[in-house]
Amino acid sequence: xxxxxxxxDLAVAVAAFVGTNIDNYxxxxxxxxxxxxxxxxxxxxxxxxxxxVIVAGAAAAAVVLFxxxxxxxxLLGLVPLAxxxxxxxxxxxxxxxxxxNGAEPGAEVRSPSRRSxxxxxxxxAVGQSFTAAALVTLAAGGDNFxxxxxxxxVGGPVNLSVIAGVFVVGEVALTALILWxxxxxxxxxxxxxxxxxxxxxxxxxxxxxxxxxAGTFGLL
Length: 220
Description:
Blueprint: H1 2-34, H2 40-63, H3 70-73, H4 78-90, H5 112-125, H6 130-139, H7 142-153, H8 157-182, H9 185-214
Helix pairs in contact: 1-2, 1-7, 1-8, 1-9, 2-6, 2-7, 2-8, 4-5, 4-9, 5-9
């Protein structure tokens, strides 16, 4: 029976981790793919730091029996939504457009200026740093809090050890997957073309989804 209970705890912890980190994977991978290669590890580290803060906050809330109002926590979704809208608004200037650099309209430009123009657009949208990745991860963490707090309250030290182990292994695997996907040549090629639009849109979607899942729109 103990083995069955341990297996159930393991399954629940895995499901909780995967279900609450799909959005983090998508957003962070997009940030890595749209940023210069040398910034990839900083962005991934920011995601790890943001996740660690979420877990620590959820664990602390579980210990003191603090009750988060799910709709209120969902207000965190306003942050990625606002960042994404700001990035879309910034596209009015069409950074990275060949005509802005003095090139003929429609001309194929593969010089560093094209890449830097698109990079500046993404940088205005979400940033390309440790801090930006950590903030975006935290802002998308409304569902994480809602799931992790009850999870940490159930069971004793063995249960918590299983959860902690799953989260550590899962975060290592997630970070490795983010770096591999984000630095893959095909991913970078796609993001070089559409990243300045795709990243802000993705952030807007994540923000709306977080608020919908939390029932936050009922407060507005």
